[in-house]
Structure formats: C-alpha cells, structure tokens
Design brief:
The protein is mainly alpha-helical and about 230 residues long. Helix content is about 65%, strand content about 5%. Helix 4 packs antiparallel against helix 9, helix 6 runs antiparallel to helix 7 and helix 7 packs across helix 9. This is GntR family transcriptional regulator.
Amino acid sequence: MPQPALPEIPRDAAMTTQEYAYLRLRNAVMTGALQPGTALTFRGLAEQLDLSPTPIREALRRLSSENAIKVLGNRRLRVPEMTAGRFEELVQLRIALETHAAMRAFPYISDVAIAHLTTLDDGMDKALAERDLDALTRMNQEFHKVLYGLNPDQAALPLIESIWLQLGPFQRQVIEHLDDFAGADHHKEMLVAMRNRDLSALCSAIENDVRDGSIRAGRRMLQDTGT
C-alpha cells in the first residue's frame, strides 16, 4: 500500500531514532499531511522513513495514546475520521486553553516578541498568497506557540498541541476545500491588541480566529458530508 508523503523535519545528532520517527509522524498528523481516513501500514512507514519496524511501532503506540492514530488490529492503522460531536469538543477546548495561555503570557509580551510575531504573520501572508498550505499551517502553529510560550511557567502548550494534533488532519482537509480565505485577519487583530497591551482584545481575537478558521468551515463540511 503506497503511503502518503511525510514532510521532512530537522534532525540533530542527539535525536534518537525512536524520537525522530515519533516527531516526524506527529508533525505529519498535526500539519494535516495525513488526512482523515488515511490507511497506514507499519511496513510502508518503515520503508518511507528508512527505519526498522521497532521505532515505527513505538511512535505509533505513542500517537495512538494521543488519539492521533487508530490501531485497528491485524497490523492495520488509520488516521481517525472526524465527527460533529468530536469536532465541537475539540474546538471548544482550543478556545478555552488558548485564551487561558494568552492571559498567562500577557505580562511577558514585549516589543521584541511582537516584532517576531509580526515577521511570522508576514510569512503567513506570503504563504497564503502562494497557497502554500504546508508553510501556512506550520507558521500559524508557530505564531501561537511563540505567543503562549512567552510565559516562562507555561504548562498549557502540551495540552494545546494535543488538540492541534487531533484537529490537524481534518482542519487541513477543510482548508484545501475552501475556494478562498476571505475574512478578517485575526492574527493582525492579535498583533494590534498586543501593541496596545489590551488583554481583552487579544483573547477576543484568539477566540474569533478559532471560530472563523475552524468552526464555521468545519461545521459546514461536516454537514455536507453528513458525519
């Protein structure tokens, strides 16, 4: 069975084979390179990553425990399909966790951080104009990670990334079926709120970003497919 292409990730000398396999497969799920319903095999993934089955098996075990991959038995694997109920649960968790993370990071926002986030937003604009969905997804996640990571005591990012991991395949599917990306640019609203040191406006922009980017289009797609 041909396996979908898995985007490359940086690999340093200190990274173990097991960690590399896990992070590369995790990145493929989170960025939507593996779409809902995609069938996978241990052998196909091992061949594509040029690894033995052992690190692949361990990586898939971890991803299964994170609800990112379904192990069906008989050595069969699949990226989970999205349902309306699961979708609503995940996006509401996104809003709750990400607004919390923004509130906790707010006291640490600096002009240097805003400049970094502005550069990321400019890169997203370029990726959007070129319809480079891989780059757009990566930079969108990086934008939010940088913001929430400003809190030196943050503990929410692993939880937030778990939600992204479960939403990633479906969200990418939604984006690929949109004819355009018209609408308010909520990342620019976030940047304005940060420059004005306006916490309420920042949390509102984050919530609107999730609602406009995930909820509306995702609900419409699930309704159209009847899931």
